[in-house]
Amino acid sequence: MLKSERKHIILEKVIKERIVSIEDLVQELNSSESTVRRDLDELEAENKLRRIHGGAESLHSLQEEESNKDKAIKNVQEKSAIAKKAAELIKDFEVVFIDAGTTNELLVHELANPTVTVVTNSIHHAASLVERDIPTVIIGGMVKTSTDASIGGIALNQIGQLSFDRAFIGMNGVDLESYSTPDLEEGAVKRAILENAKNTYILLDSSKLGRTSFVKVAPVKRATIITNASDTEILSKLKEKTEVIEV
C-alpha cells in the first residue's frame, strides 16, 4: 500500500473515531508498527491530527466536549484501572467528593464501605451510591445534561459550605501548566471542589495528557494525578511538578 493511501485511511479513521491506537492501525493497514508511527508523525507535522500515548486523536477546539454517553465507551480498561487505584486511597470514616464523569462512575462502582460519606454533583453517581447503602450527599443546581454535572450558583454555594478529606475530579486535559475543561461553569465547580478538599486527585486516562481545553481550573501542582500512562515525555515532565500515581 502506498504511503498516501495509508495516510488517507488513517485520517478517515481518526475523523470517524476521534481516537485511534497504533495497534489497531497496524492490523487495519497490514503495516509494521514503525511504518504507522512514521505516518502518524508526518500527519501531526502537517497539522492533521495530534499524537497521543499509543496512538493519535483528531484535532479539537478548546470548547469541544463529548457527552458522557460517548466517553463511556472509550478507554474503558484504562479508566477501570484508574478507578480501582483511586478506591484504594479512601479510608474508613472519610468524607469524599466524587465529581461527575465516566471514570468517576467506575470509582463509584468500586466502593462498598458504609463508613465513608460521599458527596457528589452527579445524579447517577448518587443513585448508584444509595443502592450500595453508602451515605450520600448530592449537590444541587442546574444539571448539565451532557456530563450529568450540577453547575451554577447553587452548586458553588453548597460546595463552599463543605469540607472533604479527599476529592476525585475529572478533567478534559492537562498540559504542563494546568488542568482544564471546556465549560466555564463546570470549571468553576471543579475549582470549588479542589479548594475545599484536603487531598485532591485528578483522574486522567492517557488520552487527556498534553490536551488543553478552554477553562483553566488549577495549576498542575495543586493535585495528585492518577493515570495509566507511562514512559511518555509529558508524564516525565509532570512528575517534576506534582505527584503522579501510575496504574
From TrEMBL:
Pfam families: DeoRC, HTH_DeoR. It comes from the Bacteria. Keywords: Coiled coil, DNA-binding, Transcription, Transcription regulation. Residues 26-82 form a coiled coil. GO terms for molecular function: DNA binding; DNA-binding transcription factor activity. The keyword Mitochondrion does not apply. Residues 3-58 form the HTH deoR-type domain. The keyword Chloroplast does not apply. PANTHER family: HTH-TYPE TRANSCRIPTIONAL REGULATOR SRLR-RELATED, TRANSCRIPTIONAL REGULATOR, DEOR FAMILY. This is Transcriptional regulator, DeoR family. The lineage of its organism: Bacteria, Bacillati, Bacillota, Bacilli, Lactobacillales.
